[in-house]
Structures
1.
Amino acid sequence: MGNNPSSNAVSQCLSSAVGGNAGLLAFKSDPLYQLNHVKPYNLDIHITPAAVTYPKTADHVAAIVKCAVDYNLKVQPRSGGHSYANYGIGGADGVIVVDLKNFQQFSIDKNTWQATIGGGSLLGDVTKRLHDNGKRAMAHGTCPQVGIGGHATIGGLGPTSRMWGSALDHVEEVQVVLANSSIIRASSKENTDVFFALKGAGASFGIITEFKVRTQAEPSESVLYTYTINAGNAASKANTFKKWQALIADPNLSRKFASQFILTELGVIITGTFFGPKSEYDALNITSRLPSSKSDSVLVLKDWLGVVGHWAEDVGLQIGGGIQSNFYAKSLAYTKDDTLSDEAVDKLFTYLDKVDKGTLLWFVIWDLEGGAINDVAPDATAYGHRNALFYHQSYAVNLVGRVTPTIRNFLTGLNKIVTDSLGHELGAYAGYVDPALGDNGAKMYWGDNLPRLQSIKAAVDPKDIFHNPQSVRPAKA
């Protein structure tokens, strides 16, 4: 908390910042503070913010930031609150949280189809509002409770990203509050360095109160497929993965095709969406390129909200959607040159078969990316993995208490098998933030863009007001 200022002085400053409206503030002395206001997503990481604020205007946000500067406190914005390490509530004690739930503005220009979206909007609401205003859509992830504020400033990967790019690739302009309490517009034409930084490392640079995004016409027809594979032992699971990897590594694979390979205690599922008519999907001959399945489901939908709703149901089955829990997660970003050899795949699935996982509730998802995401130049935005072909995300939950060393060692060992097999480190996705990466996390999240980000940070936030344990630090003079 910096100089440990008087809590009374801080509370008075914050009260003034929101016009004296006590309903827009909460402090750690308040009853049920953790339950009603802090609301940690990862119950394994205990955080006590100095205050949680609920501003209604950009001027409120600017005044809150000024309080933080005056009293040498750190600030973090919260949109949906789904940071894996609770960085939306600071990631450490004593931070001022700026909860953006009141920023729900929405409009759409039906000439340009550019939409204006408030920084506190959840993805489920974004989908519905775009649909209701011209049957429009944008790329984003599958969990409807996630907030656009974090999602579209860190990456925002989802099933349509191979066609349309990531969520942050849709962002054309923002209104943002900076560390000096100024409220500015940033785009490719003004405040371009800030715009670059916000598109991939937003929480380190400011608080976005409003996005202007390009939108796409909803797909008129989509095919949702799920194959539950006959794969009982480690060897058969490895064989299934080899075939899936060969499929998604095909450079001619349609960008309309999204796919996930999901491994759980119950077995293997290959699932995804094809954004086009079933005749085009059938022409891909997916079933002939995968092992036989014990059951399969191919569902054709012409209702876009139905498609997105189906994704949400799948997320709920995999990880409980937006449910709080004690969990640990890790990720790796694979490029087209990082496909695993048959020997490496065999070793990986033998490990997964034999290792003590410490829990029955775990999964690993290998998620196809590439396509339009890779079309953007690596240095065009802060997002650090323009060359990623696919990611894996591993996730383990302890339903009866804190995450154990056994659980952590399981996921750490999984990543080590991959990187040892490839002979080099891989990047990690900042949307699946991993505090165990420590100071090395910034390099793994933002890659070669990190030095530029550090320079921009030194220019616009030299006191590191927008801070969490793995945020971008200012370049040293």
2.
Amino acid sequence: MKRKNVIALILTGVMMASALTGCQKTAGEVPETAKTEAGQEEAGAGSQEDDKEDEAQSQSAGEPVEIRLMAYNAEATRATYLTLLKEKFPDIKINFEFVALDNFNNVLNSQLQAGQGPDIIEVGGETRLLANAGYLMDLTDQSFTGKYAQAGLTPYSVDGKVYATPLQSWYEGIFYNKALFRDNGIEVPKTLDEFIRIHKDLSAKGIKPQTMGAQSWEPMMKQSIGVVNNEFYSDPENKDFDSKFNAGEAKLSEAWLPYVEQWSKVITQGCLTQDMLGLSYDQALDEFATGKAAMWESGPWAVGTIQEKNPEMELGMFPIPGLKEGPGWLVGGPGSAFAVNKKTEHAEEVLKILEFTATEEAQLALIKDNAGSSFLTGVDVDLGDIYTDCEEAFKAGNVYAPWTASWIAGNPIVEGYGKSLQEVLAGTKTVKEALADADEINDTMRETLN
């Protein structure tokens, strides 16, 4: 089987991870337009040629060029930016297509394999796979690419070539109800043991300490990696681990095991409970926003909804603590990015959009609806009072997500690992077995790609 087809099959069979992206968790059905286009090849080549001819006639008549942008973050998280594009480019019409994360990969790959697909694609940890399959335009030599810090480009690069440019960063920590903490004499935890003690102190007062939508495999995966960041990735001796892991020369079940086992005390000591496996992201958000729980793990994309549900809440976020006292770590890094379909028929217009996106004006517009930092050189962002407790971590650069920053097959690995942690919470699997599952996926992906 050809390499391109193998990668396409891998992509089709794997759901995209939301750490991808610090992703917006908005659920929803796949838009009918996306479903129709995904199966467009069935309509026959004649109808496609007719569509192209109609489009050419429309453009010659002075109508805007239509650009399709497919994304798994909801349009609301890009609203200010999209309005700005409309003002700056009256000759270009952006057709924004939101496809829910659970089905994004299937819809996108159906279209790409048919030689179609959107002009601009929101991508995350699967960028390397898409680039290796030959679906993405090489952006290395574009002038705007050099305006971004290397840390923002590395996750979207293969063999020194850049295939996507970063939007704002993402990060995830522990949201907490400041008033509830203050009224009960609770301090922000600086160690994992303090974090666990807070759960017990609040429970003794009849307050639910932490809610979690563990129906999704993401939150436990990220919270456990937060502890790994504190204890493993903070050690300079482990700086080469991810490259060794990619090569099959290192195993999570060996290197990470002591730290994930320490994190798992949140399960064995009752901070996370089996009933959380029945809670969705939205249900957990609602519990926290309405004051029914003191803490909830998520990121800035949730702030707007929290404040809509409870405008009076004093909201804060603290980093995931480690075993020793310190600034803590957030899970995150470059969020999603914009890649260009190699087969786009509107390369000139698309590159104009990406060039404008590499300006301070566009970056601030992106951040307005989805808080984060910018990887565009020279752009500084004041994140506000919500993140005061995270300032020390930010200053230390303590924000990392290995699956997006370094791992070649990051999304499938963390999805498998996260689902195995759900089994750990259910009491049917050990932490070592969960890490071994991730190692096995890494081995399988590497062997298949080779």
